[in-house]
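I have been asked to look over a protein record a colleague put together. Alongside the sequence sits a line of tokens, each denoting a local backbone shape. I have pasted the whole thing underneath without changing anything:
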Amino acid sequence: MVQQRLRSHPAHPDGSSRCVMGISIASSCGTLRGVLIDAVGHGSRTRVEFLAAVALPIDEVLVVRLRKLATGSGADFSVDTLGQLRAELAEVQVEAIQGLVAEAAVAPNRILVAGIDDPGLWCVNPPDVRYFSLCDAARVAETTGISIVDSFPARDLAQGGQGGPIGALPQWVLLKQAQENCLLVDLGRTTRLSFLPSDSCLSASSRITSFDVGPGTWLLDELAAKLTGGREPFDPGGRFAVQGRRIDALLDHWLADHLFSQTSPRWHPRGVRPERFLNDALRMAVEAHWSVQDLLCTATHLIAEALARATRERLPDDLPIDRILVTGGGQHNGMLLREITARVRDVPLSRTGELGIEDHLLEPACIALLALFHLDQVPGNLCSVTGAEIPRVLGHLTPGSPQNWQRLLHYMSGARPTVRPLRSAL
């Protein structure tokens, strides 16, 4: 277990602070990450101080099972197998919570709640989407004594939404700038854009936009594995891609995919799978004698070009982009960053770490904020982003120890919802 004590984003001088945890699993399913934050303020006015962070490797057998579920190939899991998976996952989550408590310089009784996110079990048969959380919240709460908030997508789905992306509002709270409109580019297994307007923008939170652009490092990883016979699971720094050439015919074929013409909301719980781009490309490559290096080079151009087009065509015309923030594994791919920079010449590019939030802390910090929003009765979903009919408070709350639950009830009794039903005014 890797532990870090962190101090950043000084707490707001006004108001009392709340200690909240966030636990999430990386998209590769190989690592579980957790953070402990000290939060001051309410809703979109929350300010955060990072107190501690942990990173735990997940057992390889469990990783394989999680990946099957995350990619949709585990729908035939039995009840016994699924129950065992949840129990094993709970053990890692408990270890993360205990590690954060041990590392942080705060008393355990100050921790109100822990938010937990996991890949979940999704059944996607449009227009119906079904979701089942893999978190055994009762087991984690009983073991740690800390109340748990999980199952964040469920309420959005119940309101007709897609169940995500639900990180847009927390990202804005964490990364917003006073005078700059920022574009957060997540170069993960799927490429995602999140437009984060400046704090000075009128009705800033309502102008937030987030959607899946297209394929990301997952496509590059699959090609790199084919090139090296599985010896290299990814293209380190883009060094294989630079050995190839861009195939314009293939790039045009990829860009003609209907994915890029779909309107928002645009998100899928399993991301943009590489097969939709890989299968045709391999057949075309054999016929035209293209190398895998050529495919890697062209795929890198695809990611950059899809990103540039989405920036031009799908973002607010009246709010210019002042800065691009990059996160995700693709930020370490030199060729990919060069191609992105070449297409957005007039906008400076930074990494999220330059704003005081390291890349690996962003996702669990968003989960911690969603758990805090639950306590504060603040809707965590944005209807324009997820497609839900009505914004809702997200998550399911499972009580911890009696002492923790009493503190939580006392705290929540003083919280006032930011959105009230019309009948409450009558």
